């Protein structure tokens, strides 16, 4: 059993199924605090070494973590079966769109 599978999220006394709960938490955090993803979306290109290399390595690890959660969700039947890499790219693209909306002062419902 992987570390992700061992995690249990508790919300209002009920267990939230993994990895759906983790993905939802990541996305809701991004919506509540859009500045947290601003670096991930576009500001990272202004970094200089060694910060740039550190960021790139962390970004690769983050994307891999999301892809592993997506693949696990598909395996457990929480997410529809599809290509986990494409699904991960769709999730990350959606985060960029949501960030752009937040920057433009759009009201976004963080309860989904």
TrEMBL record:
Check the record and name the InterPro entries matching this protein. KstR2_TetR_C, Tet_transcr_reg_TetR-rel_C_sf
List the coiled-coil residues: none
Task: Give residue ranges for domain HTH-type transcriptional repressor KstR2 C-terminal.
Answer: 28-100
Which Pfam family is an annotated match for this chain, by its short name? Answer: TetR_C_24
Q: Which residues cross the membrane?
A: none
- Please give the name of this protein: HTH-type transcriptional repressor KstR2 C-terminal domain-containing protein
According to its UniProt entry, this protein's organism is Cellulophaga algicola (strain DSM 14237 / IC166 / ACAM 630)
């Amino acid at each position: 059993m992987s570390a992700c599978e061992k995690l249990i999220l508790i919300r209002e006394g009920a267990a939230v199924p993994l990895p759906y709960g983790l993905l939802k938490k990541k996305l809701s955090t991004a919506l509540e605090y859009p500045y947290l993803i601003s670096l991930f979306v576009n500001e990272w290109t202004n970094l200089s070494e060694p910060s740039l290399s550190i960021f790139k390595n962390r970004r690769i690890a983050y994307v891999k973590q999301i892809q592993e959660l997506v693949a696990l969700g598909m395996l457990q039947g929480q997410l529809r079966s599809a290509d986990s890499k494409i699904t991960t790219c769709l999730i990350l693209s959606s985060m960029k769109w949501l960030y752009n909306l937040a920057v433009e002062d759009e009201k976004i419902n963080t309860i989904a």
